[in-house]
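>> received
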Amino acid sequence: MPWFVFVTFTVVAQHRRRVPSDGLIIGVAAGMGFAALETMGYAFTALLSSQGNIGAVEQTLFIRGLTAPAGHTAWTGLTAGALWALLASPSVGRIFGFIGTFLGVVVLHTLWDTFSGSLVFVVVAIISIGWLLWALRRYRTFGEHPVGQLAPS
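>> returned
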């Protein structure tokens, strides 16, 4: 996370044209990196708890590989995209948009960690990926207009 803050402020300091989709993509990349690192930790734990059973490790890696895009990858992308939108065109609405996105992501992560049923995972995954795709589409529209001007909603 500290490197993301560094990259954000470096881009802001350069006064180049910024679009929220840039932040979304950087956030997705950061989320993927974190998910990969976290997955390796879960795989190592599975290896130790199963006393060296490689099948348990493979199962852990498979499940985590399928669910990673709907977890930290989407959530970090959404949050970074909202932050980038705020930086590209600061306004009170964008502040509330960022806070709302952050709180929404926290709720999704809490649901993911609290409930263990497959149905909950599927519903949270659909919401997360759908929200990410909607945000990407919205931010791409934002990028087609000069900074500070939004497309009509």
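>> The helical segments are 2-13, 20-49, 54-67, 72-88, 92-114, 118-143.
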